[in-house]
Amino acid sequence: NTAQIGVTGLAVMGRNLARNFARNGYTVALHNRTAARTHALVEQFGDEGDFIAAESAENFVAALERPRRLVIMVKAGDPTDAVIKEFAPLLEEGDMIIDGGNAHFADTRRREKELREQGIHFVGTGISGGEEGALNGPSIMPGGSKESYASLGPMLEKISAKAKDGAPCVTHVGPDGAGHFVKMAHNGIEYADMQLIGEAYQLLRDVAGYSPTQIADIFRTWNEGRLDSYLIDITAEVLSHVDAATGKPFVDVVLDQAEQKGTGRWTVQIALDLGVPVSGIAEAVFARSVSGHADLRESSRHLAGPTARTLGKDEAAAFADRVEQALYASKIVSYTQGFHEIAAGSEEYGWNVDLGKVAAIWRGGCIIRAAFLDRITGAYEAQPQLPSLLADKDFADEIAAAQDDWRDVVAAAVTQGVPTPGFAAALAYYDSLRAERLPAALTQGQRDYFGAHTYHRTDREGTFHTLWGGDKTEIES
Ligand code: 6PG
Question: What is the pTM of this model?
């Protein structure tokens, strides 16, 4: 038993993670349901480091030094439970099971509790960065016990991505399901980022009249400024790609129906449960859903729209600058909403998540890595109790500077009939927060009218009801 870590589940993510550990000098035990994959890995990449191929669960467990560190990289849901059921009886007190899949945090909480009773540490761990990240350094979001992090942390720090300042993109996020919760929120933000970029693209195409290659260049310019991020970078790559078969822009030959595996949807479902308004993230999930309703879209194509008007050359360039402002302001809002959700989850489950640290470990390796995240860390470091990112003076100032353009862009989208649910929802959220009065007062009046649901007054304490069906006197209830 000489392996410091074992990986079971050797599909591409598991395989790359195992190679990453091995390349960093760890001896890695390997296991897969079908042994052919295990042997294929050793055959292909055996010279990258020390691997111990195990054909059976027993041999795999026996290969691990104690306390054992066993990483499971299988599909979230039932397959994960099945693997836990297979291995848990073979483990001993103090051993660790690390679940690196995109598990639902509620499942992670359940598994952690069950395994804790057996003395096993269950470490639900968010891993972001796709295949490339798993191999060369992902952003890692481990939950679970402090003791497990003490044993595992140094290894994760070694294999993780490093931010520009050299800091490893991993931290102990918090107990039990905290890691998977934060990974879920990461993905929700990822959905919002992607949707906002998509809207910017569509506006540049339909309103400004730019071609995909021209838009790729615009994104490249933006990527040199405050929007500098992995997603903007790959967007330019995708947009400039030409389909070999047809010679058309790649983006024009791909079916425009976005798929999803569920983490974005969970972010919204959980936000609804926690009562957190993540409207921008929700619109991103709904936008994918709308896109997938092919029949509904087909039967709606005849619906009337405005007369389109493409801008002239100079106007187009000025419009592109405004779209950058709208994108940036909307991005601040999505992160504000995502961090609000993490704060609410942390509060609900007593996780004590350090929001500044979360932003810091997202600076490298993960899909939403961006220069911008440094600023979020800075904001929370300056004010750990910051109620919202919009309460940070620098972000507020930036939005103040962007807001005229942001409003113009949303207005142009509306008059031109280009759907921008992300930009519009972000702006509505911003305006709702700043509003002196909201029509919620009227909602309360309506609720009291039809259901005697009562209301509070602005001028004195108490709970009131108006006798709407009678003489409209107000009674205190
Ligand atoms: C990551 C990603 C990854 C996720 C994909 C696909 O952080 O590396 O978030 O975990 O699986 O991005 O997500 P959808 O299929 O839901 O778009």
Answer: 0.97
